[in-house]
Specification:
alpha/beta; Rossmann fold; 7-stranded parallel sheet; 5-stranded mixed sheet; 49% helix
């Protein structure tokens, strides 16, 4: 049909459509992630737009071997190596079209050679050159240190999303086959370099005694650590075929193997950007199945891949872990194990999903004795409505998704720092999570009821309802903190109002003293999410509720929530107190 929009695939799907998948066909996945039930397995796909992909690596090696071969006489070591490399890709008949005395750039089938070597990259890197160290091609030619540990590399959308999910406590276990340090850099960037959030493990000694909120197992090594300490970490950079084959038997990786095998049997698996083509990865999952098999069906699903189509290696993995069940339920298993969204959209959608599910969980925990489960569900719908409005603002290009994630993090950092009265956190750009507990464990936070977070969640639901049903226009303030948390208009109040959300009277006092909240501004609404207490005000005569219209309006949301008998009652009271 002319002019029809292209059907989205895993690469082009929007964040909003990925979120829809998480609400519908993959709702169990979304719930499981929010509860912290999944280990996240990452591969090179999440760094594709930040570090060279395998085609570039392969071409780099080919060019280097060709340069060396053309500089030596006869069948020297580089000529022998180049011949082996071409032999990995071409048949004897096809090799006749290649003149090794010419540069690869003029070979008529160079693209075929490169494409095929991508599937044999580990064998290519394992080619030995007489007189050179066994890891020469990776360490010196590919230059793993400068290529994957370059200080100028910046995190992409996927790395930022993983950092947020780690801070929110829903991915206590992250594994990565990547050499780069972009997940670590993303997390450092939104925590002012706090070293106590993420533990990075490569060697057995790294694992002993370390404990953090999230644990990153880099089982193929880390270029950043190898660059800092070559003596300790160079030998742990795994990329050659002989290393991959020997990995399951190498005593240096015994502790890492035990950890990973345990995760496959005790945590559900979400793979993003990882093809699972390496035999050692397949062996990990096979051993995990032998330790404790995941039954089929499993709810939530035990294995999910972020892929357009499952590759042969991923199918092999499913065959290994499901055994007889795969024979009898192949179609159902493969359908349930494939979510058609790549990392940018899926991980961004998971951030929105987790934040919304946490807010809904907080709505269920708010001290509102007269609000029934049905009324709380209406607030949950409002939370998700606002979430969907936010998701719809994200563009579809890679750069759009990165900018969306940056803006989301900046907005959350700004809002929650102001909510807590912590302007230092805002200045340092420290992301303060909604909570460090996964959904289902939030009630275990002893500070929860004093934090104002349940009431903040209620306001989120109200804002979603007001936007969807009452013609509110709610926009994130993005400039100076004095512009408020949000700007809000309504049919009864069409002039934009600054709305500040604060956890307590103490937090408000700090914002007033810092010159952020102007109590004399009649266009300002301050919503305090705890019960009001006596507070020193700059001018006497201020009051909570429908204050003098020459001053800002202060609303105690907790007081309203405690008294409300329905969402309609709650909304009416808030509008009355805020004069909206």
């Amino acid at each position: 049909m002319t002019g029809a929009s292209p059907i989205p695939n895993a690469a082009t799907i929007s964040i909003a459509d990925a979120l829809k998948l998480l609400d519908e066909d993959f709702k169990e996945l979304a719930v499981g992630v929010a509860k912290g039930e999944y280990a996240l397995w990452l591969g090179s796909g999440i760094s594709r737009e930040r570090v060279p992909d395998l085609r570039i690596v392969v071409r780099c090696v080919l060019d280097h071997l060709s340069d060396g071969a053309r500089a030596e006489a006869g069948d020297g070591p580089f000529t022998v190596a180049l011949t082996k490399a071409v032999g990995l890709a071409l048949t004897n008949t096809e090799k006749k079209a290649v003149d090794l005395t010419n540069t690869p750039g003029v070979w008529p089938n160079v693209n075929v050679v490169v494409d095929r070597l991508v599937s044999h990259y580990s064998q290519l890197l394992d080619i030995r050159i007489l007189g050179k160290k066994e890891d020469y091609l990776l360490w010196e030619v590919v230059d793993v240190r400068d290529t994957y540990a370059n200080d100028n590399l910046e995190p992409d959308c996927e790395h930022l999303a993983v950092a947020v999910l780690a801070l929110e406590g829903v991915f206590p276990t992250i594994t990565s086959a990547n050499w780069d340090g972009l997940v670590e850099k993303a997390l450092a960037g939104i925590t002012a370099g706090n070293p106590d959030i993420l533990a990075v493990y490569v060697r057995a000694d790294d694992i002993r005694g370390a404990n953090r909120r999230s644990h990153l197992y880099k089982y193929h090594g880390c270029a950043v650590l190898a660059k800092k300490d070559e003596a300790k970490y160079r030998e742990y950079i795994v990329g050659r075929q002989s290393q991959i084959v020997d990995w399951p038997l190498d005593d240096r990786f015994a502790v890492m193997r035990n950890r990973l095998e345990g995760f496959t049997s005790t945590s559900r698996t979400l793979m993003v950007g990882l093809s699972a083509q390496d035999s050692n990865i397949q062996a990990i999952f096979a051993k995990g199945r032998a330790l404790m098999n995941w039954p089929y069906p499993s709810h939530p699903p035990a294995y999910v891949f972020a892929e357009e189509d499952l590759g042969a290696d991923q199918e092999t993995l499913l065959k290994c872990v499901y055994k007889d069940a795969f024979v009898n339920h192949q179609l159902e298993i493969e359908t349930g194990a494939r979510i058609p969204a790549y990392g940018k959209s899926l991980l961004s959608a998971l951030v929105l999903s987790v934040l919304a599910r946490k807010a809904v969980g907080l709505v269920g925990l708010v001290d509102a004795p007269h609000l029934s489960a049905v009324e709380r569900e209406k607030l949950a719908i409002g939370v998700n409505s606002l979430r969907d409005t936010v998701a719809a603002t994200a563009g579809t290009s890679s750069s759009d998704k990165l900018e969306f994630m940056k803006a989301l993090i900046a907005g959350m950092t700004r809002d929650l720092a102001m909510f807590r009265g912590d302007t230092a956190a805002h200045a340092a750009r420290v992301y303060g999570p909604l909570g460090v507990f996964p959904v289902g464990q939030q009630s275990g936070d002893p500070e929860l009821q004093m934090s104002g977070m349940p009431e903040l969640a209620v306001f989120t639901g109200l804002a979603g309802i007001g936007h969807a049903e009452d013609q509110w226009h709610v926009a994130q303030a993005t400039g100076d903190l004095a512009e408020g948390t949000l700007t809000i208009t309504s049919p009864a109040s069409p002039t934009p109002q600054k709305l500040f959300l604060v956890s307590s009277s103490e937090a408000l006092s700090r914002l007033v003293l810092d010159g952020i909240v102007n109590e004399d501004d009649p266009m300002t609404i301050v919503t305090i999410c705890s019960a009001p207490v006596s507070r020193q005000q700059r001018n006497p005569g201020g009051s909570y509720g429908r204050a003098d219209n020459r001053r800002c309006r202060e609303v105690s949301l907790r007081s309203i929530v405690t008294e409300a008998t329905s969402v309609g009652h709650l909304l009416a009271r808030f509008k009355e107190e805020a004069t909206l």
